Amino acid sequence: MAPNPQCAALAAAKDKKGISYAAIASQIGDSEQRVIDICTGKVKATSSEFSAIARVLGISSSSVRCSSPSPLASPSDGL
């Protein structure tokens, strides 16, 4: 079983939509492991990755507020 997202907004949207990490990955053209790592806070997403995941989940990336660790990489993160 895949781990649960650390971001409550992503978790709620993922559960509401009933979509798997693999399905999200397929729709955004990324690996399932990368999506899991982003959603669980293991790695920080680029703004485009986070926007793509939010789009698949049917939520606005600008309205998502996640607790630490931040789901978004800052420009100083070198991503």
Automatic annotation (TrEMBL):
Coiled coil: none annotated. Pfam families: HTH_3. InterPro entries: Cro/C1-type_HTH (IPR001387), Lambda_DNA-bd_dom_sf (IPR010982). GO terms for molecular function: DNA binding. Residues 9-64 form the HTH cro/C1-type domain. Gene3D superfamilies: lambda repressor-like DNA-binding domains. Transcriptional coactivator that stimulates GCN4-dependent transcriptional activity by bridging the DNA-binding region of GCN4 and TBP (SPT15), thereby recruiting TBP to GCN4-bound promoters. Involved in induction of the ribosome quality control (RQC) pathway; a pathway that degrades nascent peptide chains during problematic translation. Required to prevent stalled ribosomes from frameshifting. Belongs to the MBF1 family. This is HTH cro/C1-type domain-containing protein. It comes from Guyanagaster necrorhizus.
